[in-house]
Write a structure and sequence with these properties.
Elements: E1 11-21, E2 26-33, E3 44-50, E4 56-62, E5 72-78, H1 86-91, E6 98-105, E7 119-124, H2 128-140, E8 147-153, H3 162-170, E9 175-181, H4 198-205, E10 214-220, H5 221-233, E11 241-246
Parallel strand pairs: 7-8, 7-10, 8-9, 10-11
Antiparallel strand pairs: 1-2, 1-6, 2-5, 3-4, 3-6
Helix pairs in contact: 4-5
C-alpha cells in the first residue's frame, strides 16, 4: 500500500498520551513508545489491534510528527465509516490506552534537511500527514531549504493542521503554503478553489528560488495520479517525483 521497502523492526506497545481534534473527520493521537523509536520524516508505522476473541486488524498510518520529537509520535487518523481500525480510535480510544506499533517503515518517501532542496510538496486530504512531518522537521532544524506545499482539501474546515501551517507560512522564512479548496471559495487571495492542475503547479513553483530538487506527492490513488501528471505537465522531471498512495 505504501512505497519503499519495509524496515525490519519488531512490534512494540505504545501508549496514547494525548488526543487532539484536527478537523471534523481527522484526530491526532500522540503515542509514547515503549522502546526507542528513531525515524525519518515521511515514514509510517503499522498499527495492530487485537480483539478479545483474538481477531486482529492492521492498518498503516503516516507519522505526522518530526523526528526531533523523540519517543513521542503523532498519527493523524481519518475516520472511515467502513474501516476496522479508525472507528476504534475515534469512538473508543482514550488517553492511557495501549496499541501495538510496527515501524518505522518506508525508505523511499522520506526527506531530511541534509537532502537539500528546493522542495515541492503536494498533498490531498490526509495525504498531507507525511508532508507535515517534513515541514515540521525543516522548522525544528531551522533549515533554510526552500519549500512550497500545495495542499488540496474539499473545504476550509478540512484543512488539517491549518493554524500551524498558516503560522509557518507567516514566518516568510522560505516555506510557502498554497491551499486549494475544491468545494468552496478560497479564503486567501493567493490560494485557489479548484483541483490541482499544471497551471497551479507552475505558479506554486514560481515561489521557489529555483526549480525543485525533489517533489513529494501523497494522497488517494486518484489524487496522486492526477497530481503527479500535473507535475509532469508543469515540466517537473518524472525522476524527481516521489509518490505515496492510499485507499482508492
Amino acid at each position: 500500500m505504501r512505497d519503499g521497502p519495509a524496515a525490519q523492526s519488531p512490534w512494540q506497545t505504545a501508549r496514547i498520551t494525548r488526543i487532539e481534534k484536527r478537523t471534523p473527520r481527522v484526530t491526532s493521537f500522540f503515542f509514547q513508545t515503549s522502546r526507542p523509536f528513531a525515524y525519518r520524516a515521511g515514514q509510517h508505522v503499522d498499527v495492530r489491534l487485537t480483539a478479545p476473541d483474538g481477531y486482529q486488524a492492521r492498518r498503516s498510518y503516516s507519522i505526522a510528527s518530526a523526528p526531533e520529537t523523540g519517543g513521542t509520535i503523532e498519527l493523524a487518523i481519518e475516520k472511515l465509516e467502513d474501516g476496522e481500525v479508525s472507528p476504534f480510535f475515534h469512538e473508543v480510544a482514550a488517553v492511557g490506552d495501549e496499541v501495538e506499533l510496527h515501524g518505522p517503515l518506508g525508505g523511499h518517501f522520506v526527506w531530511s534537511d541534509s537532502d537539500g532542496g528546493p522542495l515541492l510538496l503536494v498533498g490531498g486530504g490526509s495525504g498531507v500527514v507525511p508532508l507535515m512531518a517534513m515541514v515540521r522537521h525543516r522548522a525544528l532544524r531551522k533549515s533554510a531549504v526552500p519549500v512550497a506545499l500545495v495542499f488540496s482539501a474539499r473545504v476550509w474546515d478540512e484543512v488539517i493542521f491549518r493554524n500551524e501551517l498558516l503560522g509557518l507560512d507567516d514566518r516568510r522564512d522560505g516555506f510557502d503554503l498554497v491551499l486549494t479548496l475544491t468545494r468552496e471559495a478560497a479564503r486567501r487571495p493567493a490560494d485557489y478553489s479548484r483541483r490541482i492542475d499544471a497551471a497551479m503547479i507552475v505558479q506554486s513553483m514560481a515561489r521557489l528560488p529555483e526549480p525543485p530538487k525533489l517533489a513529494f506527492v501523497c494522497g488517494s490513488n486518484t489524487f496522486v495520479s492526477a497530481a503527479a501528471q500535473a507535475l509532469i505537465d508543469a515540466d517537473v522531471p518524472p525522476g524527481l517525483i516521489r509518490t505515496e498512495r492510499y485507499g482508492v
